[in-house]
Design goal:
- Helix 4 crosses helix 10.
- The strands form 4 sheets. Strands 3, 4, 5, 8, 9, 16 and 17 form a 7-stranded mixed beta sheet that branches. Strands 12-11-10-13-14-15 form a 6-stranded parallel beta sheet, sandwiched between helices.
- By secondary structure, it is of the alpha/beta class.
- Strand 10, helix 5 and strand 11 form a beta-alpha-beta unit.
- It has 2 domains: 182 residues, Medium-chain alcohol dehydrogenases, catalytic domain (Quinone Oxidoreductase, Chain A, domain 1, Alpha-Beta Complex); 137 residues, 3-Layer(aba) Sandwich (Rossmann fold), CATH 3.40.50.
- Helix content is 25%, strand content 26%.
Length: 355
Amino acid sequence: MSTLPSSMQCLLKEREEEGYDLVQRPVPEPGPGDVIIKIEKVGICGSDINLWKWNDVAKKIASLPFIPGHEATGVVVKVGSEVTTIKLRQKVAVENHFYCGECVLCLSDRGDICQRMDQYGLGRGTKHGGCCQYSLVPARYCYVLTRSLTPSQAVLLEPMGVAHNAVSQIEVAGVGVLVLGAGPVGLFAIAVSKALGASPIYAVDIVPEKLEIAKKMGATHVIDATKEDVGEAVMRLTDGNGVERIVEASGSAVLLNHSFKWLRKGGQMVLIGIPKGPLHVDDVLQDLIFKSLTLKTVHGRRIFSTWRACEALLASGKVDVTPLISHDMPMSRYADAFSALLSCKACKILLDPHQ
């Protein structure tokens, strides 16, 4: 590899206020167990709105200062002295959940829900993130790509992994799936459900443009919650029986609270979204207990089995990421990118830190 530059362009969050600064900082030097990645693409998503605004949610999950960007991919350009599992020029994507490797959950192969988890791109245990030209990442959090993926595919392994982890928990093959929310993770849940054999697939959202994308990702029926009663639509489409599986990816507490009524007896639900209000079930006996339901939640990806499964689906063409990429922009236009994100009409936004 050629000699790295001494400085780089990056986004930085240093102050408790809205926005980021585009600054020049020294290119980091790897420690013994680290690698330096030349970032090719970094993704921003709905969760980044909290960090941009620096609202109450951000204050709970992030620590200043930090370089944002928890979805990142690139090429390894420098390797620490003790790194043996990763080589120069290998393409990698970053697992943003920095598990400790020592707690009872990590020792049970559940690093995805580590008790002492730090997070890349949020300033938790590391100030580094993907919104920079060269990023320092401990080697053990890098997923080495084994198949031929484009940078745009590789950077989406992280959000796709959340959806795959969720869908794989609820046995979707041969049954109907209702996906609440057609943001990027919800859209991936639709595509993964289709790839794993679900049918039919229903999608709910309030943005018509996102429902059009949902169709392209594999939804057989779409429901615009601004135009019709979701419950009535679900019951009509299922002949009054309710749906077998629900993937909640909207983060709407109101929608989630009602959704238990739409599940068929023996149904299964998995929660991905982050509700902004309290949860309750109106009729606990009829909508929960007597239905003998299964309720699961996920936090991230299974490390690294989910990554391998998602990489295989992308490489095989069973999941196409093209419909959900609404913007692919230079990082220098980050303000425009976040303006599009805040409009609620953007879907998946990718940035190139070298432009």
